[in-house]
Amino acid sequence: MKKGVLLVVLLIIFPRCATLQKIQQKDLIGIFCTPEYCTLTLELRENNTFKIVRNGPCTVSECEGIWKYIRDSLLLECSCFEQNNIQELLSSAYMQQRKFKFRVKNKNELVLDDRIIFERRNLPNNKLMKKRKLN
Q1: Residue range of the domain that includes 48
Q2: Which CATH number goes with the domain that contains 39?
């Protein structure tokens, strides 16, 4: 009887330990986007830089900067804009939000603002990260 209980306990604990693998920074490198139409796309690069693109109905806004992975959080901070790029500042292409904090759910899913889920995509960078041309 004791052996049976011990066996059941071990069968419950070991699969959970396997799913609680520690995610390392290198596991997060790649492209993530929102499931529906990739309205938000995030590219995390090996050199700790990132690019986030928001595709709206008539505009495309983006920012690039530095990212850090701390415990279960991914912190992104857009680089300072160039003072001479006034056209970007005045247009709708300027991304007003300059800091982002994602919760790392697992190595294939990120959560922004406790509601927006980003999923890993295995598409070439140029397909997702190109700006859409507006007619």
Answers
A1: 23-129
A2: 2.40.128.280
The pTM (predicted TM-score) of the whole model is 0.70
Q: Three-class SS of residue 34?
A: coil
Q: Please give the backbone phi and psi of residue 87, each rounded to the nearest 5 degrees, phi first.
A: -60, -40
Contact 120, 30 (CB under 8 A): yes
Tokens read off for 9? 């306990």
Q: Does 41 have pLDDT greater than 60?
A: yes
Tally of domains in the chain: 1
Neighbours of 124 (CB within 10 A): 9
Q: How far apart are CA 67 and CA 64, in angstroms?
A: 10
Please indicate, yes or no, if residue 85 is contained in any of the structural domains. Answer: yes
Q: Is residue 7 part of a domain?
A: no
Structural contact between residues 93 and 62, judged by C-beta atoms closer than 8 angstroms: yes
